[in-house]
User: Fold WhiB family transcriptional regulator from Streptomyces tibetensis.
Amino acid sequence: MKASEKSSEQLRREWLEHPHFKYRGCAPDADDPLRMAGNPELPVGAHHGPDAFAPEGQKERRAREAAAVEVCVSCPVMVACDAYASSVGADGRLAEPDGVWGGRRALERHRALVKARHAVVAAPGRLFETPQKRAVLRALAVCWDPFEVAATASGLLVSWGEGPMDVRTANWQRSSLVRLLGLPKGASRMRALAAARERGLLEGVVLVPDDGSVPAVPPPTRVAAPVEPTQLSLPLGQVDRHEPPTRRAGRVRRARTGRVVSMPTLDDAFELAPVIPLFPSRRLEAAV
Ligand code: SF4
Assistant:
């Protein structure tokens, strides 16, 4: 029998038996259309609250939403309802941005959406390993102008034995990186770099922030090479290695270690010091 051949009473009965009506807890009650099917004590529309012309206090709103969630919990289509309401349309918005749907309040669905957008997708690491992506990522770490990024990436690629890259390709590689990192399309440069660093793709690379002032990650501190101890060789006498040389020659003093050290006298120094003939002796004698 065609729908047009059925009586209105037959159609109504069929509709009341249909799962889309039967299991909708928030649907109007068959006997009282102003009451909710899932809980006759609640008015129809309790899942969405009053309109803008009837403001609602925070306390009342919480109580209403809690009662609506209870109705959802006993609704057989709750999972399907939540999946529909939490789905995202082509405009990036929730299918149902307001009210209680599928046992979740609007705020909970929005929070879940934001969390999902921020979650880093576990893209395979090999997708980041192409020379073009590595070059663009390293170029993005130090500059932000698209032309500079392309020029820096080209320099890296050429040094790696690859061909250069134009601005358009560099921009495309950047968009691809953002997508692979699980970030929204308009993610900022620093956000993309932070996500890449989280994944270990920028090990040892200094990140320069957008204003170019201070590197976000300072370069490693240089460690001074250990200084080799120099051995002072004194030609005169025997000096204790633990004691500094003293000017007070000719004295015998006790070292801190308890050993007795003999210091050379001034006469010994003159005896041992080499005599340098500044002038030939014969000329000296002639001058006298
Ligand atoms: S899950 Fe809640 S909002 Fe969805 S149909 Fe059931 S009662 Fe209505």
